[in-house]
Amino acid sequence: MIRIGKSYQNLMVDVKATNEKLVARAARIVIQATDCSEAQAKQVLVQTDYDVKLAILMLLTGLNKQQAQNQLKQHKGFLRSAAEAS
Predict the structure, then answer these.
(1) Measured between alpha carbons, how far is residue 84 from residues 46, 60, 71, 72, 81 in Å?
(2) Which of 16, 19, 25, 31 is the most exposed place for a label (fewest CB within 10 A)?
(3) pTM of the predicted model as reported, rounded to 2 decimal places
């Protein structure tokens, strides 16, 4: 999972929350990865249509959604390298 860009630290981040249980899990993952509040995590998840990887990148770097999407695309979906490049 690490080699294909699906994890960050020890967390599975290539997740798209599609139901209530996954939304709660997504918020916990974002909180663990960024040390943000629950309210911040939920707000950014709504902005990203519950894309965990994108939400984490936005919180870590301060990029807006479009910038973060472009950054992830440039780094072929690898969150760590996208975050370090910002």
Answers:
(1) 24, 10, 10, 11, 5
(2) 19
(3) 0.89
